[in-house]
Amino acid sequence: MSNSKLVYSSEHGRVCRHCGRPTAVCKCNAKAAAAAAATPGGHVVRVGRETKGRKGKGVTVVTGAPIGGDALDELASKLKRLCGSGGTVRDGVIEIQGDHRDLLVAELAKLGWTVKKSGG
Q: Looking at domain 44-117, which of 3.30.780.10, 3.40.50.450, 3.30.2350.10, 3.30.930.10 is its CATH number?
């Protein structure tokens, strides 16, 4: 196990993969690399369909959008209008009623994000 790296410590929480220090006090370039990966071109947005906990009714779920807060609510409103259906934002995940995966993948790709279909 000499080449395994510690990624979590119950004493300190998350640990930097590069320098081995807790992420709260890490001073290496890993933070800059993580910030670069969070840009729209480097982030993968997943679009899937779920029925779990909805009495068999299907919803399209958009996860991994590199935005949050009001911008996420605004994007959800735009996508709901595009699909002509209702939906909500819960815990940073956009849920749109019905199966609109193909339409949403095309629209999110227009925004410059890397989009992948998830699930079946």
A: 3.30.780.10
